[in-house]
């Protein structure tokens, strides 16, 4: 397998819209990928194509038959991308909405008095759903504390709280605030060792763009992603559920198929754009490896993405050439520590005595797009224990470059030095 070379990086960047400029701001560097990644050009073309088709699925006409074929092919493509040999895929309003539906179904089918296990690391998409439906279903919610110092939660931390009556568990695959990943397979194994029948549901929304997806290895029952965070568009989410979760009583139309989880006529274009995602990963895998099997190429793409993004975050933290890294800048604190092997394409920082929104605004004036995470309902579970009112999130993807990192560091150093003056 080869790395993402400068020549390949140019090919990669050519496949995305608005890599170097914002249609409203003009030239800019995009380090706000955790809020929504850049969009593949093929996704935009596919969306327009299917938006123009008037026919629906399930009719006896050539157009309808073709739409059903597109949907079935997309589901098969997603199974390859996410390495799911069983279960089913379906789309919904958003990744958050799908997490709520999966967690709700798991909770209302659990025995009264059972436990729901989750962690303080989680985004409110899963944490809110678990706490709400645990209360409604008369279950006890058990909170696993994440490690503030490293910005993640371990299998050992989950294991300390698992009891045989844990019926539902939720896991965040990667934090959109700290940028740290969780070993989902290890957490799942720790849960099943004590509560083998537990229904385990994973929020993969932040993780999906940054490397491997391998559902067969996780040992879980539900997994959700938001395609707008993985090179597609807004307006839909994708969920995978196990055969066991599929067959539980759930919201559905009377006399509908027992495994049906979708409501109404879905957007065929949403399904079709997931095939565009898979085709992109497949193409990239072919550029960085000699693999002939599609799944192997996708795995190679994931390894190359992870390696490239690690180079960029390492450069951001430790410096690049003569440009100082975040670790060397006075008054800059890196959330989760400078040397953290769990990091996935994201560095969150605070600048002493400077409100994060002010830093973000000053970077934006120089054409560098970052984002403020405030201690609100989205992020207070991470920031409050650290005593922080906010932080600056700098999030990258594999189409970003070392040149962009160097420009960001130089701009930030100027802002920090100005604060010291």
Describe what this molecule looks like in 3D.
By secondary structure, the protein is an alpha/beta fold. The protein folds into 2 domains: 6-39 and 295-420, Aspartate Aminotransferase, domain 1 (Alpha-Beta Complex); 44-279, Type I PLP-dependent aspartate aminotransferase-like (Major domain) (Aspartate Aminotransferase, domain 2, 3-Layer(aba) Sandwich). It is built from 14 helices and 15 strands. It has helices at residues 6-13, 41-51, 62-81, 95-108, 124-136, 155-159, 184-194, 215-218, 243-246, 268-288, 294-318, 356-365, 380-383, 402-420; strands at 21-22, 26-27, 29-30, 88-92, 115-119, 140-144, 166-172, 199-203, 222-225, 237-241, 332-334, 346-351, 368-369, 371-374, 390-395. The strands form 4 sheets. A 7-stranded mixed beta sheet has the order 4-10-9-8-7-5-6, with helices on both faces. Strands 11-12-15-14 form a 4-stranded antiparallel beta sheet, covered by helices on one side. The chain has a two-stranded antiparallel sheet with strand order 1-2. Helix 2 runs antiparallel to helix 10. The longest helix is centred in the C-terminal third of the chain and has 25 residues, at 294-318. The chain is globular and about 65 Å long. The N and C termini lie far apart (48 Å).
């Amino acid at each position: 397998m080869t790395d993402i070379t400068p020549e390949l990086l140019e090919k990669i960047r050519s496949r995305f819209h608005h890599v170097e400029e914002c249609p409203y701001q003009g030239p800019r560097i995009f380090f706000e990928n955790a809020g929504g990644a850049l969009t593949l050009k093929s996704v935009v073309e596919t969306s327009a194509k299917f938006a123009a088709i008037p026919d629906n699925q399930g009719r006896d006409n050539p157009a309808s038959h073709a739409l059903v074929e597109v949907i079935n092919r997309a589901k098969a493509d997603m199974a390859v991308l996410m390495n799911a040999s069983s279960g089913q895929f379906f789309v919904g309003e958003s990744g958050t909405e799908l997490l709520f539906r999966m967690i709700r179904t798991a909770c209302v089918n659990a025995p009264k008095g059972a436990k729901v296990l989750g962690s303080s690391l989680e985004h409110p998409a899963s944490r809110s759903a678990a706490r709400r439906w645990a209360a409604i279903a008369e279950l006890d919610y058990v909170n696993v504390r994440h490690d503030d110092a490293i910005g993640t939660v371990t299998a050992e931390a989950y294991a300390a709280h698992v009891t045989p009556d844990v019926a539902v568990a939720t896991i965040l695959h990667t934090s959109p605030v700290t940028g740290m990943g969780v070993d989902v397979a290890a957490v799942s194994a720790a849960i099943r060792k004590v509560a083998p029948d537990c229904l385990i549901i994973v929020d993969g929304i932040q993780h999906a763009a940054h490397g491997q997806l391998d559902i067969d290895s996780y040992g879980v029952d539900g997994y959700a992603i938001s395609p707008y965070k993985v090179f597609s568009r807004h307006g839909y989410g994708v969920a995978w559920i196990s055969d066991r979760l599929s067959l539980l009583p759930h919201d559905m139309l009377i006399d509908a198929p027992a495994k049906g989880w979708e409501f109404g006529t879905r957007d065929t274009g949403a399904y079709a754009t997931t095939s565009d995602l898979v085709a992109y990963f497949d193409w990239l895998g072919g550029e960085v490896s000699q693999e002939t099997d599609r799944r192997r190429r996708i795995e190679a793409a994931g390894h190359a993405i992870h390696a490239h993004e690690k180079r960029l975050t390492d450069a951001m933290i430790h410096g690049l050439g003569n440009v100082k890294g975040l670790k060397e800048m006075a008054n800059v604190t890196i959330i989760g520590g400078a040397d953290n092997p769990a990091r996935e394409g994201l560095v969150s920082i605070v600048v002493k005595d400077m409100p994060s929104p002010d830093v973000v605004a000053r970077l934006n004036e120089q054409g560098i797009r970052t984002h403020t995470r405030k201690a609100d309902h989205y992020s207070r579970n991470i920031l409050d224990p650290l005593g922080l009112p906010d932080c600056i999130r700098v999030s990258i993807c594999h189409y970003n470059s070392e040149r962009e990192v160097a420009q960001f560091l130089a701009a930030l150093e100027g802002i920090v030095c100005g604060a010291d003056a």
